[in-house]
Amino acid sequence: SQQGEEDPQALSIQEGENATMNCSYKTSINNLQWYRQNSGRGLVHLILIRSNEREKHSGRLRVTLDTSKKSSSLLITASRAADTASYFCATDRGGTSYGKLTFGQGTILTVHP
Amino acid sequence: ETGVTQTPRHLVMGMTNKKSLKCEQHLGHNAMYWYKQSAKKPLELMFVYNFKEQTENNSVPSRFSPECPNSSHLFLHLHTLQPEDSALYLCASSLGDRDGEQYFGPGTRLTVT
Q1: CA A111 to chain centroid
Q2: Helix and strand tally (H, E) in chain A?
């Protein structure tokens, strides 16, 4: 599997439900970032979690990071139809590679009204 | 609007054409990036510029030629492309610091015929 691999590949839920997406990676990291992409558009940064952090919140978003398992999860609470998009995790290995993000293939989230 | 603009938004070119993609950021950032997004593949980092200096060329074929005249502008010059080069080309910028989130433009949808 590739660095920054998300699962599930697709997720379909009803408005108001919570959505959880997972990301696994292979190498040590400096930070891990989550991005959202609406169909055919640019990516929007959602949240960044550093390797020494375990959990971070931003509005309805909650991100966890487990460096021992090399995994992260993104939870969107009380989802809305406007949350329908693709979600990507990206890892930054730091050092001489900082800023050189490696992206996963993403999770396609569909929220039905 | 993220403060990163890309032109053109759509481009159709033949394999013998020469064209250029343009990216401009209005955020005062020091690092700029080109990514390629193909269907069913993760976002691929192509080039990185920090303070106008190229710091990454991710084994990109020479038919793609980047140019960064200043820290606000980034170009991708295209010549003798192949149909498999058809993709969404995304530009991004960041402060260039160690924990830099990246701001993406809307992308250029390129079709090579």
Answers
A1: 17
A2: 0, 11
- Token pair 């970032």 is found at A33
Distance between A87 CA and the closest CA of chain B, angstroms: 12
Contact B92 A106 (CB under 8 A): no
**Cα distance between residue B24 and residue A34, in whole Å:** 23
B100 at interface of A, judged by CB pairs closer than 8 A: yes
Which of B33, B48, B101 shows the shortest C-beta gap to A33? B101
Structure tokens at B21: 């993609």
Q: What is the pLDDT of residues B39-74, one digit of tens each?
A: 878 899 999 998 877 877 778 999 999 999 998 999
| Angstrom distance (rounded) from CA B4 to CA B10 | 16
B106 and A41 within 8 Å at the Cβ level: the answer is: yes
B104 touches chain A (CB under 8 A): yes
Whether A113 shows a pLDDT value over 70: the answer reads yes
